[in-house]
Amino acid sequence: MKVIVIGAGVLGVSVARQLALAGEDVLLLDQRGAGTGTSATTFAWTNSYRRLDPDYHRLGLAGMEEHARLARQLPGAAAYFPSGALQWADAANEQWLADNVARLRSLGYPAHRVTSGEATRIAGDLRIPATITSLAHFPGEGYVLPDLFVRNLLADAERHGAAYVIGEVVEIEETPDRVSVTLADGTVRTGDRVVLAAGRWTRQLAARAGIDVPMVTDSRRGSPTVGLLGYVGLPVLDLRCVVHSPGLNVRPAGGGRAVVQALDLNAEVDPADPPSAGGDIASTLARRFSALLPEPVPAPDIDLRVGLRSLPADGHTIAGYAAGHSRVYCLVSHSGVTLAPILGRLAATEITTGQEQALLGAFRPTRFTGVRRSGAEVDHGATKLGEQ
Asked: Membrane-spanning regions, if any (predicted)?
């Protein structure tokens, strides 16, 4: 089978690798380069922490388990770290944290309260502020180094025969016996199936094939698609896990550096006029980060990256054929890093065998058929961890 995968982000590269492992003829296309879209601007925290829908929670758990299996199989330097995660709460959020720990424990999700001394040993070189009144540990969670993860997946896909080409897709056309993809330079590629894994570009590309994939596409200031990350250049920081504190989320970035995220600042970010390294937003991130360090240090340099999230209209993953007899398989998720390994394997299984996978049953693009756009949309605004 000839399969064309559009989009070399974490989802597209994952499914391309699995298809290549299955012996299919795979062509992977990306307009800019592997991992340079949303995958390059993700906090990359692996979890099923706040998926209140039972089907989505099960999929998240499967994604976490698949990461562990994939890490034992995938050649290359380690890109997945099952470090666990800590949640710190102040008095205003203490009850919320207690309720959430109780909810997760009732589902069998590893979660428990810890003392400040235990949290310090788990976190490494971070100071717990005096305002923190409650702490919890989630040992099954972790993080990914997304650029390295994508490189490892792509290298293994190519090792098993997948071809990788840079090219902008301008048209997708289905016929009863094939599907063709036209590139901006006029090249036409044909295949038996197309996997549309183009992240935030999914809706516009799907529309060129006559397919409606409802997504949040607003990228203006204040849109829920807009996210900000800061890469902190402190090469001596011994940070050992993901930490969520009031005002700042932190994870290791490799080489002793850290990635920081402040959800409340996202509303101030305008992608058309990105914040500067010396501006107010960078200063706020630096100040919040410095407050967590065990020793006073000069304000660290922070490399700011503005990202645009891939957001299906109802917040849930989309995985499946656009229609009953379609040759276009749609794959898009806000939880791409957590779900990439499991979505890659399950989507490839459905494409190669024609057998539907139960975990994906609730996430078909056909669920939007006949639903008014307003009925498919949810409020994606998040200013703190529990709202994600």
From this structure: none
- What pLDDT is stored for residue 278 in this prediction? 85
Per-residue pLDDT, averaged over 308-317, amounts to 94
Report the alpha-carbon distance of residue 153 to residue 18 in Å, rounded.
9
Q: What is the pLDDT of residues 328-344, one digit of tens each?
A: 999 999 999 999 999 99
Distance of CA 232 to the CA centre of its chain: 20
Average the pLDDT over 230-251 and give the result: 90
Q: What is the pLDDT of residue 200?
A: 93
User: Is the pLDDT reported for residue 372 higher than 70?
Assistant: no
- Cite the beta strand spans of 158-276 per DSSP E: 163-166, 169-175, 178-183, 188-191, 193-196, 226-232, 242-245, 248-254, 257-261
Structural domains in the chain, CATH included, are: 2-75+146-218+311-387 (3.50.50.60), 85-139+226-308 (3.30.9.10)
As a whole number, mean pLDDT of residues 144-151 equals: 97
Indicate the helix (H) or strand (E) that contains 111: none
Tokens matching residue 356: 């539907």
| CA–CA dist 81, 46 (Å, integer) | 9
Q: At a CB cut-off of 8 Å and minimum separation 6, what does 246 contact?
A: 88, 89, 90, 92, 93, 131, 132, 384
Beta bridge partners of 85: 138, 242
Task: Write phi, then psi, for 253 (nearest 5 degrees).
Answer: -120, 5
Task: Give Cα 253 distance to the centre of its chain.
Answer: 15
Whole-number Å distance between alpha carbons of 301 and 230: 9
pLDDT digits (tens, 9 = 90+) for 198-230: 999 999 999 998 999 999 999 999 999 999 999
Q: What percent of the chain has pLDDT over 70?
A: 95
Alpha carbons 31 and 233: distance in angstroms, whole number: 30
Q: Which two tokens stand for residue 287?
A: 């100040």
Q: Rounded CA gap, 179 and 27, in Å?
A: 13
Helix axes 146-159, 336-353, angle to 10 degrees: 20
In this structure, the chain runs to a length of: 388
- Residue 50 to residues 56, 61, 246, 388, Cα–Cα distance (Å): 10, 11, 17, 7
